[in-house]
TrEMBL record:
It comes from Macrostomum lignano. Residues 452-660 form the Peptidase S9 prolyl oligopeptidase catalytic domain. This is Peptidase S9 prolyl oligopeptidase catalytic domain-containing protein. PANTHER family: PEPTIDASE S9 PROLYL OLIGOPEPTIDASE, PEPTIDASE S9 PROLYL OLIGOPEPTIDASE CATALYTIC DOMAIN-CONTAINING PROTEIN. GO terms for molecular function: serine-type peptidase activity. GO terms for biological process: proteolysis.
Length: 679
């Protein structure tokens, strides 16, 4: 029996209710969920930052008290709660005793705001100083805040070639200037003070490492009068039996002496504790041994996968996120058996876990539910949604659910991806036809695809595209060995894997290899361009603020990633220099034989616009169909609704013109150079 309401139409021509404007204007991005740092208050109010594309990408602090499901906005007009430390930010929000502290995007000063409708006043001095990842210590009447500070004044004055990172103490009232707590290393993160304010822990690392490579976990006993480390009191945690490449991150104090951290000594990012009473490396305990990564790479601050639960009856327990569950652990006993396990019904991705007032809070999502701020009563299992990232609801008949796949790739290896088949309840394709395929290369490159609902993916699948979101070798979530497979192989392993998934899906009849295209942002943009330059698998590509010239990236990018390439493309300076030429798409445009569209923000400090401009000029000169859209006021990633719309619709229109089908939506044209007259 044929459903007469379903129309037959070619893949790629399907009309979808999931429009670009529904992706941007109707939605927000949820970051930095937190609760009040005053554990005595414990009132159950939750706070978060939401990025609002409809407000030109402004970031706004919001809150919701216990007993309410109506969020309140805090950040005054003209301010935006976003930090530029490491350029990727995160950790821009701190709350203590009902007062909100946030970094402001325009001047990067920390502001204090005492009530939602009240003024916000700066508490850090003027100058090119960026602050992130604050931790409040109530050791004195006035309190103090530990921050990661990135000092760009030293660059502006000419005394240093790159910013200087350190840990500082900031006065909550702004009455005293910041004091340096720890300095001398290239990078710092995660300053965390014990509940009794007697000890401070943090993570530090040096070039050329990134925060997922070799790092050090340090702690220091503090002078109760000043809050500064006591003389000769800084300790570096040593893990017995582990080598120099050990990655430690996300520390937190479970008690005055018991320090929690994420480490990869087992081959996966697992949760451990160490007793600091008897020495810096005494009595390490694995709190939940698992052959899975329980954390993500620290591209942004404040991404802890665990939090502390302090019940009214006393005691402290650890809550650890594992997939769709929350585990209650006993940090003091060192037992590897959970005290309890709670399934967060309806969600399989849980971020920013926090506990306050008897409730567990997080930003949670699933394959069919967009990210949302949730309030979860662990014992009863009741869940309240406080804020949806997108309020529009679409019938499940328009939603394609991620299917995890493994596929063979070069040199007998195996790679991973999420496959999304075309899905639209209103359409069916002609019998025997196969859909065009969009391969997506995630950014990073040390990062991962997510199976959670993304309307940016559903935009494509609901129009009749198949989509493969590739976790190429080097991606996170599969353990340390897989994560390190991209070392010295960027531009090789990732390229091989993105091409291999096309062959795999084509052989299974799930995609049309003649209409395979690829896109990616940032590092994914580089993989996109490299696939076009060094392989002939794809018929078109779209680079979003992607890297075209590795040497330019080394010379122009910011401090955080300035030595990233050292571990991605070469073991020696000579190898790095040679690979910068051999693997840079800009030097191999003569090998590109398919159309390309590029999208770029003119204020991007991570991948400056000159990369896209050079690539566009060379592809245009070669006579290939191409387009270039430069968005004023955008940085690394697009935050304004109109630009999100243009990038989605523009890319779809570009591919449609090349593949010869008419988009169901009108008014989404872009200017394509060198387009043949018959297209």
């Amino acid at each position: 029996r044929i459903d007469m309401a379903v129309q037959e139409a070619e893949y790629g021509t399907w009309k979808s209710p999931i429009t670009a404007s529904s992706v941007s204007s109707a939605g927000v991005y949820l970051f930095d969920l937190t609760v009040d740092s005053n554990i005595e208050l414990n009132d159950g109010t939750v706070y978060w930052i939401e990025g609002r594309p409809a407000e030109a990408g402004r970031y706004v602090v919001c809150s919701c008290p216990t007993g309410s499901t109506d969020p309140v906005s805090w950040t005054p007009a003209g301010l935006s709660a976003r930090t530029r430390v490491h350029e990727y930010g995160g950790g821009a929000l701190l709350v203590y005793n009902g007062a909100v502290y946030f970094s402001n995007m325009a001047d990067q000063r920390v502001y204090r705001q005492d009530k939602p409708d009240g003024p916000a006043e700066p508490v850090t001095p003027e100058g090119e100083y960026f602050y992130a990842d604050g931790c409040y210590a109530a050791a004195t009447a006035g309190g103090r805040i530990y921050y990661v500070r990135e000092d760009h004044e030293v660059v502006r004055s000419g005394s240093r070639k790159e910013a200087e990172n350190c840990l500082v103490l900031v006065s909550p009232s702004g009455a005293q200037p910041p004091q340096v707590v720890a300095s001398g290393r290239d990078f710092y993160s995660s300053p965390r003070v014990s509940a009794d304010c007697s000890k401070l822990a943090w993570i530090q690392w040096d070039h050329p490492n990134m925060p997922w490579d070799a790092t050090q976990l340090c702690w220091a006993a503090l002078d109760p009068a000043t809050g500064l480390p006591l003389a000769n009191a800084i300790n570096t945690v040593q893990v017995p039996g582990s080598g120099p490449e050990l990655n430690l991150q996300y520390p937190a104090w479970a008690s005055a002496n018991r320090l929690l951290y994420i480490g990869d000594q087992s081959g996966y990012w697992n949760l451990y504790s160490v007793d600091t009473a008897a020495g810096a490396s005494s009595n390490h305990a694995s709190l939940y041994p698992a052959k899975q990564d329980l954390a993500s790479p620290a591209w942004m601050f404040a991404q802890h996968p665990h939090c502390l639960e302090r019940p009214a009856g006393g005691g402290t327990r650890v809550l650890l996120v594992s997939g769709d569950s929350v585990l209650r652990l006993d940090a003091e006993s060192g037992s590897a058996e959970p005290l309890a396990q709670f399934k967060v019904s309806g969600y399989n991705s849980i971020k920013y876990p926090k506990w306050s007032g008897g409730y567990f809070y997080a930003v949670a999502s699933s394959a069919v539910s967009p990210p949302a701020v949730i309030r979860y009563r662990l014992e009863s299992g009741s869940i309240e949604v406080l804020r949806l990232s997108n309020s529009l609801k679409f019938d499940v008949g328009y939603i394609s659910v991620a299917q995890p796949i493994e596929f063979p790739t070069a040199n007998g290896a195996t790679a991973h991806a999420y496959y999304y088949p075309p899905r639209n309840r209103d359409f069916v394709a002609p019998s025997g036809s196969r859909p065009p395929l969009l391969v997506r290369a995630h950014g990073g490159p040390t990062a991962a695809a997510s199976p959670s609902l993304s309307l940016k993916i559903q935009y494509w699948t609901s129009r009749g595209y198949a989509l493969a979101d590739v976790d190429y070798r080097g991606s996170t979530g599969y353990g340390t060995v897989y994560r390190n497979l991209l070392r010295y192989n960027w531009g090789i392993a990732d390229v091989d894997d993105c091409c291999a998934v096309v062959r795999y899906l084509a052989n299974k009849g799930l995609a049309d290899p003649r209409r395979a295209c690829i896109d990616g942002g940032s590092a994914g943009g580089y993989t996109t361009l490299a696939c076009l330059a060094f392989r002939d698998t794809f018929s078109a590509g779209a680079s979003h603020y992607g890297v075209a010239d590795l040497q330019l990236l080394r010379a122009d990018t910011h401090k955080f990633e300035s030595r990233y390439l050292d571990n991605l493309i070469g073991r020696t300076p000579e190898e790095v220099s040679r690979a910068c030429v051999e693997r840079s798409p800009i030097h191999h445009v003569d090998k590109i034989s398919c159309p390309l569209i590029l999208f770029q923000g003119d204020e991007d400090r991570i991948v400056p616009p000159n990369q896209a401009e050079l690539m566009f000029a060379k592809v245009r000169e070669k006579g290939l169909p191409c387009a270039y859209l430069l968005f004023p006021g955008e940085q690394h990633g697009f935050r304004k609704a109109e630009n999100i719309n243009k990038s989605l619709d523009g890319q779809f229109y570009f591919f449609a013109k090349l593949f010869g089908f008419q988009p169901a939506d009108s008014g989404i044209e872009v200017d394509i150079v060198n387009l043949p007259s018959d297209k």
